[in-house]
Amino acid sequence: MDALRLPVLSVITWSPFVGALLIMFTARHRPRAVRLIAAVTTGVSLLLSLGIYVAYDREGAGFQFYEKVALVPPLGISYELGVDGISLLLVLLTAIIIFAGVFASWTVKVRSQEFYALLLALVTGVFGVFVSLDLFVLFLFYELAVLPMYLLIGIWGSSGEIRPRGIFAWAYRETGVGTKEYAAMKLTLYLLFGSAFILVGIFALWVHAGAGSFSYLDMETAVFAPGVQRWVFLAFYVGFGVLAGIWPLHTWSPDGHASAPTAVSMLHAGVLMKLGAYGIVRVGMGLLPEGAAELVWLVGTIACVNIVYGALSAMAQTDLKYVIAYSSVSHMGLVLLAAATLTEAGLNGSVFQMFAHGIMTGLFFALVGLVYEKAHSREIGRMGGFGRVMPGVATAFTVGGLSSLGLPATSGFVAELLTFMGAWRSEHRWWLFPAVVGTFLTAVYVLRVTKQIFWGPESPHFRHLEDARGPEWVALVLLVFVLVLFGMAPGLALGPVDTATVPLLARIVGP
Amino acid sequence: MLPAPLAAGVLELALGAVLLLVFVLNLFARGEDRRWLAGTALGGVLVVGALSLVVTPAPAGPGGMFVQDGLAIFAKRLFLGATVIGLLAGLGARPASGRRAGEYHLLLLTSLLGMLVLASARDLILLFVAFEVMSIPLYVLAGFLKRDATAVEASLKFFLVGSVSSAVLAYGLSFVYGAARSTDLAKVAQAFSTAEPLLLLGLLAALAGFAFKIAAFPFHMWVPDTYEAASTPFVAWLSVTPKAAGFVVLFRVYFEGMGERADAWMPIAAGLATVTIVAGNLMALPQQNTKRLLAYSGVAHIGYMLVGFAAASAAGTAMILFYLVAYVFSNMGAFLVVEAVARAEGSEATAALRGLAQRSPLLALAMLLFLLSLGGIPFVAGFWAKLYVFWAAAAAGLYWLVLVGAVLTVVALFYYLLVAKRMYIEAPERPGRIQLSAPLALALVLCALGVVALGVYPKPVVMAALRVATPLF
Amino acid sequence: MSLGAYLTLAALVFAIGLFGVLTRRNAVGILLGIELMLNAVNINLVAFARFHGDVAGLVFTLFTIAITVAEVAVGLAIVIVIFRVRRTVDADRLDLLRG
Amino acid sequence: MRLLVWLPLLVLALPFTSFLLLAVVAPLRRAGRVAGAVGIAAIAASLGGALLIWNEGFRHTATWAWLPGDGGPMATVGLLVDPLANAMLVLVTLVSFLVQVYSLAYLADEPAPALGRYYTYQSLFAFSMLGLVLSPGFLQMFVFWELVGLCSYLLIGYWYQRPAAARAAVKAFWITKLGDLGFIIGIVMLWAATGTFEFATLFAKAQAHALAIPALGTIMFLIYLGAVGKSAQFPLHVWLPDAMEGPTPVSALIHAATMVTAGVYMVTRAQPLFALVPDVLALIGWVGAFTALLAATMACVENDIKRVLAYSTVSQLGYMMAAAGAGAAEAGFFHLLTHGLFKALLFLGAGAVIHAVGSNDIFRMGGLFRAMPQTGLVFLVGTLALAGVPPLAGFFSKEAVLGGVWAAHMTWPFVMLALTAFLTAFYMFRVVFTAFFGPATAAGHAHEPAWAMRGPLWLLAALTVLLGLRLAAGGGEAHGPAWLAPLSVGLALAGVALAWAMYQRGALDPRRVAAAFPLSVLDALARRRYGLDALYDGLYRGFVLALSRLVGWIDRYLVDGVLNVASAWTLRGGDALRRIQSGVPQDYVFGVAFGVLFLVVWARLWMR
Fold it and tell me: pTM score, two decimals?
């Protein structure tokens, strides 16, 4: 990589954006060209992220493939990129998911040009957050990653149906709960609401670091007063936590993910929620070690609520997409719990869970998308016996499900194992039990859904369904492969991750 | 080469010449179509604008009451630029090019002249006079469509609120004069350091007057009505330039020469900013008329600029200047899109934008850009603007204000996105693309370019703003 | 008489003017109110000029007077136009634009 | 020397390869019988390897890093080859091989793709089970532990379109998972305390008494829970009978010979650790014995031949556990091996019968001995072995277990086990008499199965007999006191006699016997499976599902409701505020006046 003298991170980040521009201005009314451009540009990102993944120097550790261009010197804003073990893995995740997503949404008919353009722009934002070392630029990418959501869901989404009930029914009527417009607006505004807190946090860091720079590296060397650390960490926790779907700020995610079109749900549940967790770990814990150490009890406890509460809610859903969406809430709980343990195993588990759950949930949403577009229904109750008509989908779904309930030989298991190990070694041992219970509940609802949809006698009005086809296979096979590969050889991922989490940990709890 | 005292006022003199020219030509003008007259005015402003690019800070004029410092030049460029866009948009359409084109432009240019002087005024008398020269023509222009019941009503309201506030302003200034025993702002600043209650009272009253000009809550009430009723290109211009002028005066009166004591204004500005942001954003929520919606959102934006004002620092001042530049492009652009649609659809309701993305994608994209910029989204001007003022406020320790502002931005995005929804998500009511007149299209392109350019590469403007703002403290 | 007395007088005039503006229903009456408010300003200025023995205040007054004239002229013009269009100058009925 | 590593690896790799082939190469899988051939070839090869290893008596341990960590790996994977593992290897590969051959005929009329799927699962199972056997540490054991669970789930649900099968599969997974929770918690705790999952290290510590963990008792108990689930111990045994919904060969392999014995294998493997916590051991023994008895009673009232065998499996697993609990792990393991043989035999025999009759109900059979003498004969052999009649293998292992338990002074468990021995003989011969002898009911068309099925039957029968004879020749006594052998034989014969009296001779009317007082209660309870299934069902519906519905409602209508209320209020607020813009000019002037006031007041309040 370096030999090529190629600003590889920039290429990875901007390649989709270039794709978006190309699509916008060259591919009008040429759907095949649109998809081709999308596939190629995201393919470039995928290859390069694989490249840096291999090329990353595990001995050297730290931030590599470093780039820096001063943007606004007086404020110390600069376009500064670099990846360490953590972001390395997440960049790879993003690349995989979007590449799969492009194929999974191959069949988008309506205004596909705008669809892919927005999708790719969004992805640039996501990459940007993971690679940028300048908090201001990070924030910029963050907003870029959130905004296109509105149109993506609003135009290509699908409305569900929610009956206004309970003491707040009037509010439901006034806000139009259930429509895709509502979901889109809710998701976008909720996330921007979170970003308000992030913004305050970032500025506070700038002020108190006194280095006159937004660079992560400069702030790392700065020392913040305990009081500052406390409230700024809290700000970051709330801000990024919204995106990570922490209870009770998670309600945007089920509605949003249920209404979003396939690729968007994949990307959003698969990667963007991780972005929140990443923010908490990287910015929150990385820059505010004392604040983090002081407040992990809160993070972990709420994570426990997420795990159990999310799993139970998932169990209660009758809409397939909602089930998956709530399972994300539950799994994000695992991610944050693992991070909150402040142990090597835990942090590794957290990052690994981000990756594993990203792939897993991406796979899920891809499959749900397939089922939905073939069966035109998301109601679990109406489905049944799909196993015979779409064995491929059934198999993939089962693998995904097994991974999410933490079955060994899938990535999910490694993540959960590390989480458990970390939890029991942490200062709050009892965290282990909610986590374990969560996995059992997951087993309950996942197998229940699988049985309901793919097993049993097939319902007559779904005879016509057929299995995944052509490009869709690319997505499924890729995701399943990754899911199993990293499950059997977790070292592939944990090697680099460990080089990043250990120093991070050393900053928080001391070596 | 002009003698020193005049050299400082070269722009004003040039504009005066243009005024005279338009006036004279108007005497000979005949017929309905007076596009050429409008063209002349535009040309004249362009010349002055070009001139403004070459002028350099000059020694203070007679008795130091008229200064041509960096701030003044920056502001004047801003005014002239905005005016160019405004005139361009009005070109070839009534009323700007109709039978009364002469009057229209005379009034507008007079007001502009007032602004130019105001930007340089460093003496209470000159300041007040310039302020009125700027304001009075606006009342007339607001009611320029004199057959239109709403327009004249709006103009009356504008006039009432305006003249009452200028009375308050004058009353305040009289106290300032009384307390400082001089009309020289420099002396005022010195007197301020002794914090005489009378002076304080005076400055507060004056602040009310200026608050009317920048339309801060609750002095904003003329804004929605005037914007809704008056002709759109004029409103586009009205919505940015006088406000910019108002801010320049604020800097001159409340910051310049006060140094540390400037902090005294922090709580007041912060309070004003808070109520303005909240009220503006909330009141914009239920609006169905795009111009009215933009009016209220404009109020909110003033609030955001006041956040920078609350920072009471060189950084804050500079960031407001940047904000103003970004605001010129975004807000004028948005209004011009409304104008374009209104010319085709005959309606200024948000509903008129339905399915714009499918009818004329580029126009919709432009509008989206402007809205996003107003909403403060990355890669368009507004993002940097908003974050800069927030940064300035944070640097001054006003975290709570930043949080309020940022959270209310979410509310703002709600109604911006609703407009976006009309354009992109809803289906068009009738097919066919929107026809644009060449000048309007050009104006729109200018705005779009400005928004994107500032969004992608804000550095030069930021630097310039910082350069001119620093000497104030 | 002391400076304070003049200032009080001015304040009173100003208050009366404001009161007029707020309460008169007839547009012309409102204009008169504004006129009063501005005159209060003049009283202030002249008083200050007199007591500080500084001429600037007087100059200021002259300008204020001129401006007042211009303003009121414009105001009357607007009122006339309104009367033409709406056949009324009753402020309460000029509420087409609202909300 | 390299062979030490490579041969076991090969044994492990072969089934995996065939699994990969079948899973990835769709055409091959869809070819059905060809897929079967692949699977069989692979397992045959690894059977060979296993036999070689067993013969050579390899002992070796090899580990590789799995989870990297800062100071050395956090967890390792590897191979542990020792006599225990070797014996197990042979059993697993042998039974798998026979079952796969048998299935070829048994599932002959399945559609080709389905058959391919079947063999894919079979290969995966073989791989997982072998991996479990060769595990050098708890973690790897858990990994494969779960994988065999998965295979069991998939194979029970082989006929996934039958609701009953689907339900049974899911139930099996959930119940065993319940136990596995304990397992994982336990090993994580153990890791947190010792920093390793490896047996070798742990045993070393145990030897050196360096394992002074306060919570060791809890830990070992939790780990034991895993075995409870997997080896169908009370109260988690409820899944095994339902698991009979799967194809009979599957029941023979997974739910009789191999997977269900994993629990016993684990406890045997971890004996050195369990030895440190006698209380837990005692518990294991008691639970084992109780399970044995309980299952036996239920077997007595069951009419479904496979379910009878299932209950007997549960009961025999109870035996093994009891032995392990009594500290006579080797006896338990010995019983595991013999039981693996003859229980597989019995299941396969039952399969042949079902295949012929087309029903599971023993009272729909009868007089089958005449129709299919060979099957009848081998089934009889199996039954005798299970009943513990000398000189068959079962007798010796069972006696060893009883001896072990007695030696541990666990009187009550011993009594329960003895009683079980009696019941075992009774219910097995109940089946034999009703199904094979007695009046021939609607089974006229029954016939001997194909050789592919008969072969495995004969082979297993022969092994049972030969093993027994070999043990007899080697003098299989020396377990426990002298009166033990006669006692167990006596009990067995008594059971046979009773069954004969009731179901062959008709001297006693089963109904009347069941109606007699103390038995009637027992009978009713046993038929209701002691209400355990009902209990679990109630917990699931009444607690888990209800709770989930509640939480779902709360999330949708309260947590989210708050948000919606906030947004609704914002909108209303905007509308309310809008009204101050009344349109009346003077109100606007009021605005200005108010503004000035606001400024002054604000300044008075805050300005310094």
Answer: 0.91
